[in-house]
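Async update (no meeting this week)

Hi team, since we skipped the sync, here's where things stand on the single-chain job. The sequence we agreed to prioritize is pasted below, unchanged from the tracker. I ran it this morning and attached the output directly underneath so nobody has to dig for it. Comments welcome in thread, and please keep replies under the output.
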Amino acid sequence: MRAVVATELSGPGGMTLRDVPEPAADGLVLIDVKASGVCFPDLLISYGKYQLRPEPPFVPGAEVAGVVVSAPDGSGFEPGRRVLAAPRVGGYAERVAVPAAQVLPIPSTLGFEEAASLIVNYQTMEFALERRARLRAGETVVVLGAAGGVGTAGIQLAKAHGAHVIAVVRRDGADDFLRELGADEVVRLDDGWGARVRELTDGRGAQIVVDPVGGDAFDEAVRVLAPEGRLVVIGFAGGAIPEVKVNRVLFCNISIVGAAWGEFLRTEPNALEEVHAALIRHVERGLRPVVTSRYPLERAADALRDLEAGLVLGKAVLVQD
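Output:
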């Protein structure tokens, strides 16, 4: 089969398309991959900068959708079943073998590209908003990095939970796109975004700020929280890992919480099905994952380069016939 192989930890440039043996599938669900999601963990893994650090050569790819080829007895999956899966690595290939616990059914209303997009970003944001931030209907949610995959998922899911959403974005030309996803307001990151958030909330601030960016935006994210507000740390796409002065946390009665979905699943594996079930309920009410960029498998490195350069609005996927 064909697969994209990372031969060195030098980022997308260290990847090449090769013919490799099919994965051993004893005790696993073997999936004929139709679409593979392109996500930030894939990019970090390609540099050896993620919590998971496989040694080259390896096949990246943390999210796939496709059709079951074979499955162990009692797994609940049969050949021909449409499924999505979270293999962590191995997804940039024509086939992948995954433990049954990491395989989930695809809603009948979603195609393979949408299904492959319903994994890392949407699972992370549902976990972040519902479980970590305890979002309640009517609250104001500020989404940093709003034009990226995590950000667009955050906008859609915050709206699905009944929030008022303020999208904060650096790039130009994304305003209409973000409003179509459900953002009530769009604010430019480099144009006094904190003051604008306070203005839009009549000086009170936001109940929740979602931060996948880190870096310089973090300090302002702390300052724009309303009393009892919650800052949810998703990651550090901006590069720098910030620090916080806890006196502000104390005197402003705010919370700073982490939402490391992959790490949470290490200790609470049953949460995967719970979050997937919540996402299916959102899909049944009309949510559709955002797929804006499609690449053939052989252009996986280009997809990751575009993701790294901030050229992807929403979600990119690798598609196969």
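Quick observations from my side:
Residues 271-284 form the longest helix (14 residues).
The radius of gyration is 19 Å.
Reply here if anything looks off.
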